[in-house]
Amino acid sequence: MTCNTALLISLLVLALSQTSHAGTIATYWGQNGFEGTLQEACDTGIYDYINIAFLIKFGGGQTPELNLAGHCDPPSGTCVVFGEQITYCQDQGIKVLLSLGGSAGNYSLTSQDDAQTVADYLWTTFLGGRTSAGPLGDATLDGIDFDIELGSNLYYDDLATYLKAKSQSVYLSAAPQCPYPDYYMGDAIATGLFDNVWVQFYNNPPCQYSSGNVGNLISSWNIWTSNVVAGNISLGLPAAEAAAPSGGYIPADTLISDVLPVINESSKYGGVMLWYRYYDLLTGYGASIKSYVLRDKKLVYSS
């Protein structure tokens, strides 16, 4: 190897480390009994993050309630079967989070003290403070996802703060709607404590893809990446047209040719979040875009 060749390789490695933004794929699992097991989802090799959905009741002194559709019955304790599967996924390098909220349920935070109480519950039941088996067995989850779409928008910034105070290793993600700022999650996201923000660019006509037009989506993406302090910002998409009744589905070839090359120019590019595992299982959407989502920014060679 000549000195010039060695120098060129060194410069290319340096350039890659400074300008490349590899993406990841996240999905939600737990809302359809026909989507297969958690372990099966992890065995696909598609996902880097899986959000177990949802904790549909919490706050205001309520007893928290987990809903995993047809997968198990939390009150009778049958969801503990997923403890081993969670650990299995984590052993594959996949982060597994518990998602709070969703579009149905009964949840809200009534005060800072209430936020602290919920943070304590999450820490001792699902996270690093767990000392006995919880609703999901003996597994310790990697973090908490905020998918807040109902009720009050207050005190979620406090909840995020209290969770990170438990341990900086608690991974926090949020799934706001694409109109900026998100009504429910705006204050929480503004704390800068979230490791990943997967913005829902679907069921939101003003800022989603529509009929070959990527302009509204790209404009909204630029607003989010310009204003939000977060480790990563990801593009939240439906994995099938049926997954988003109000639109936003992007055909895979359009995503690959017209969207990903633009959004991965951002230093905050985190990849794609797919709603949700059931539809991805039906369509194979995640598998079809995986290599393109992961692709780093193209190196530019100059003499």
Automatic annotation (TrEMBL):
GO terms for cellular component: extracellular region. Belongs to the glycosyl hydrolase 18 family. Chitinase class III subfamily. This is chitinase. GO terms for biological process: chitin catabolic process; polysaccharide catabolic process. It catalyses: Random endo-hydrolysis of N-acetyl-beta-D-glucosaminide (1->4)-beta-linkages in chitin and chitodextrins. One of its GO terms (molecular function) is endochitinase activity. Residues 1-22 form the signal peptide. Residues 23-296 form the GH18 domain. The keyword Secreted does not apply. The keyword Hydrolase applies.
